[in-house]
Specification:
- The complex is a heterodimer of chains A (102) and B (635).
- Chain A is an all-alpha fold and 102 residues long.
- Chain A is built from 3 helices and no strands.
- The longest helix of chain A is centred in the C-terminal third of the chain and has 31 residues, at 59-89.
- The termini of chain A are far apart.
- A two-stranded antiparallel ribbon of chain B has the order 1-2.
- Chain B is globular and about 120 Å long.
- The N and C termini of chain B lie far apart (94 Å).
- Classes of the chains: A mainly alpha (102), B mainly alpha (635).
- Chains A and B meet through helix 1 of A and helix 27 of B.
């Protein structure tokens, strides 16, 4: 099995993070925004795992477990917000909820 | 007894404070008791101090009392020190006694007015300031009193502040006297810079120092005397700063009597008399004093002849009479000037108070041509008014004005100033005409208005006392030719050097004096007779003269006070207003507004980023993070 070098792993993580960030910035649908945030979280998790395997330590994977739990909690809160948003505005467009400007 | 001196100026100040703090809660009787009582006690103390001063004169004929040291800045340490000598004693006696009579009169005069306690508070503050002025031992304390009386003058001219015209008159008085005060302040700076002190008396005082250090006619002495003269001109309403005084008649009549006739306007006379040493060192300035006084007395006398407003006649006559005092000061007749100050205070206060009764009786009518025939309706007022007018006109032998004016005329003649003498004599003729014009038009002839209010006892008593003073006041100084009884001059000698008597041959001197007195008597009688002819016997002839083509021009010119108001309006007021209009958008402000504008542009630009869209903020954060990382990595 061809081993993956650390540089390649980190580049993949960076690309993923950038994709997630772009998603957060350009999408208006809140579901997609939440998904993009998940991608960013997982990109950082990937960076941890790559760095941990490079050092031959388990710390990176331990950190990924933490991120996973936190992401689960975040999704729970996020989806609750999505439901509220939909109830109130009958749409998933976040710009509809920008009444509190400034 | 002399140790009580400090009480005299302090009492009015205390009364002022009481009236200001709790005056509005007191009844009118309470206000009157405090306001008049304080001045009354002050007058009694003045009389006691004066009696003690005269019966057992203190060493050096002067008494000083230091209350505390005002401030200490390097070598400059003026004290709150009162100095009593013959000159200041005369001043405090006149200020407190006449002030008391006018306060007493005011209790009735002002009874129907709003602001009763305010009125008495201002009046007391005025008396306190005036006493500080005349008792001050150093020029800085004198200046404090000087500004204090200026402030009170402003407050009282504008007493009926609801009419904007009164406020305008008050501002005019304040602004014009400010011109003189600025000159005086510069004079004080000059004296301090060159002599290192502002104390007046003693070996280290400016009078002694100036005498020992400055040459006669030196530039410094001339500058100092001229600057002090500027202050005196403003305060005393002399040419060219006289225009405020006729307008000051907008205030209540007792104010006109107290401030703008009897006391404050003579502060300039007092200042010159007090610093006479400086004026002796600057003969050119001293001659200017005489010249200004002469021109003023003539100019104001002509204007008084044409006025319709009773109080304006008296105002112009005040300017004219103070002109006589300046003339006397200018020829070095110090005690003659102070003698005329005293008699003038008596009869001018009397005339103003009489005018106040008339104005109140006719429901605030001030035009003399709407008066007439008051002789029967207001007997006491009319009689006392005639006494006052006779004193003003210098009616021979019995009135005080005759003796004081005659003394001044005699001194002018002795000083070899025949031209000034002729003009002064012409002024005396004018005085006799306009004072009796007032009497004949207002009190005789047919009645034109009904009397709605008769004066009570509180108004008649001061009138009677002042009328008595206007007669006996003259007997303190009889001419050399008859009696040669001159206690006033003898008393004043302790404060002034005896004016060098012009030595004539004894016999011809008496003859000359008698001749001059004869002329003065004739002038006075002729003036009164002319007034009778033109204004009572055949009024149509006077009106005919006033209506002829030349007469009407002159009449209008004199009525407007020789056009000084017009001239100053063109010379000073309009250019300032014009400049103010041009520079309405202040040029200097433009620079600052430019900075403000630039900052505002940035503000608008930054405001555009504040959209409320979170994702734009996120873009900003991400972009910023990338830039920072790039800087860290690449550098």
């Amino acid at each position: 099995m061809a081993s993956v070098s650390m540089e390649q792993g980190l580049i993949l993580a960076g690309v993923l993070f950038a994709l997630g960030l772009i998603g957060v910035l350009v999408r208006r649908n809140i579901i997609f925004i939440l998904m993009s945030i998940e991608i960013m979280l997982n990109a950082s998790g990937l960076a941890f795992v790559v760095a941990g395997s490079h050092q031959g330590a388990a710390d990176g994977q331990v950190m990924f477990i933490f991120i996973l739990t936190m992401a689960a909690a975040e999704v729970a809160v996020g989806l609750a917000l999505v439901l509220q948003l939909y109830h109130r505005f009958k749409t998933l467009d976040v710009d509809a909820a920008s009444r509190m400007r400034g | 007894m002399l140790e009580l001196l400090w009480l005299i100026p302090i009492l009015p100040f205390i009364s002022f404070l009481v009236l200001v703090l709790i005056g509005s809660r007191l009844s009118r009787a309470g206000v009157a008791t405090i306001g008049v009582g304080a001045i009354g006690i002050s007058a009694v103390v003045s009389l006691l101090v004066g009696f003690s001063f005269m019966s057992s004169p203190p060493p050096g004929n002067a008494f000083s009392q230091t209350l505390w040291k005002w401030m200490e800045i390097g070598k400059f340490e003026p004290g709150i020190t009162f100095h009593l000598d013959a000159l200041s004693l005369l001043m405090i006696l006149v200020v407190t006694v006449i002030g008391f009579l006018i306060h007493l009169y005011s209790t009735e005069y002002m009874i129907d007015e709003d602001g009763y306690s305010r009125f008495f508070a201002y009046m007391n503050l005025f008396i306190g300031s005036m006493l500080t002025l005349v008792l001050a031992d150093n020029l800085i304390l004198l200046y404090l009193g000087w500004e204090g009386v200026g402030l009170c003058s402003y407050l009282l001219i504008g007493f009926w502040y609801k009419d904007p015209a009164n406020g305008l008159a008050a501002r005019k008085a304040f602004t014009i006297t400010r011109v003189g005060d600025t000159a005086m302040a510069l004079g004080l700076f000059l004296l301090f810079a060159n002599l290192g002190t502002l104390n007046l008396h003693g070996d280290g005082g400016i009078l002694a120092l100036a005498k020992s250090q400055w040459m006669e006619g030196s530039g410094l002495a001339v500058a100092a005397a001229a600057l002090l003269l500027g202050g005196a001109l403003g305060k005393s309403g002399q040419l060219p700063l006289q225009t405020w005084l006729p307008d000051a008649m907008a205030g209540p009549t007792p104010v006109s009597a107290l401030i703008h006739a009897a006391t404050m306007v003579t502060a300039g006379v007092y200042l010159i008399a007090r610093t006479y040493v400086l004026f002796e060192l600057a003969p050119s300035v001293q001659f200017a004093v005489a010249l200004i006084g002469t021109i003023t007395l003539f100019v104001a006398g002509c204007s008084a002849l044409t006025q319709r407003d009773m109080k304006r006649v008296l105002a112009y006559s005040t300017i004219s009479q103070i002109g006589y005092m300046f003339l006397a000061l200018g020829v070095g007749a110090w005690s003659a000037a102070m003698f005329h100050f005293m008699t003038h205070a008596f009869f001018k206060a009397l005339l103003f108070l009489g005018a106040g009764v008339v104005i109140l009786a006719l429901n605030h009518e001030r035009d003399i041509f709407n008066m007439g025939g008051l002789w029967r309706e207001l007997p006491v007022t009319s009689k006392t008014f005639v006494v006052g007018a006779a004193a003003l006109a210098g009616f021979p032998f019995i009135t005080a004005g005759f003796y004081s004016k005659d003394l001044i005329l005699w001194k002018i003649w002795s000083a070899h100033q025949p031209w000034l003498y002729v003009v002064a004599l012409g002024g005396a003729l004018l005085t006799a005409i306009y004072s009796f014009r007032l009497v004949f038009i207002a009190f005789f002839g047919e009645m034109k208005s009904h009397v709605v209010k008769k004066p009570g006892a509180l108004m008649k008593i001061p009138l009677t006392i002042l009328a008595a003073l206007a007669i006996i006041g003259g007997f303190f100084e009889l001419p050399h030719a008859w009696g040669n009884w001159q206690p006033f001059s003898k008393f004043m000698e302790s404060a002034f050097p005896l004016t060098a008597p012009v030595e004539h041959d004894g016999h011809s001197k008496v003859a000359a004096e008698l001749t001059l007195q004869g002329i003065a008597i004739v002038v006075s009688i002729v003036g009164i007779a002319l007034a009778y002819l033109f204004f009572l016997h055949n009024r149509a002839s006077a009106e005919g003269i006033a209506r002829s083509s030349l007469g009407s021009v002159v009449h209008r010119f004199w009525f407007a006070g020789w056009g000084f108001d017009w001239l100053y309006d063109k010379l000073f007021v309009q250019p300032v207003v014009w400049a103010a209009r041009i520079n309405k958008n202040d040029f200097i402000d433009f620079i600052y507004r430019l900075f403000a504008g630039i900052i505002k542009i940035f503000h608008v630009i930054l405001c555009l980023t504040q959209t409320g869209r979170v994702r734009w903020y996120a873009v900003g954060i991400a972009f910023g993070a990338v830039v920072i990382v790039a800087i860290v990595v690449l550098s």
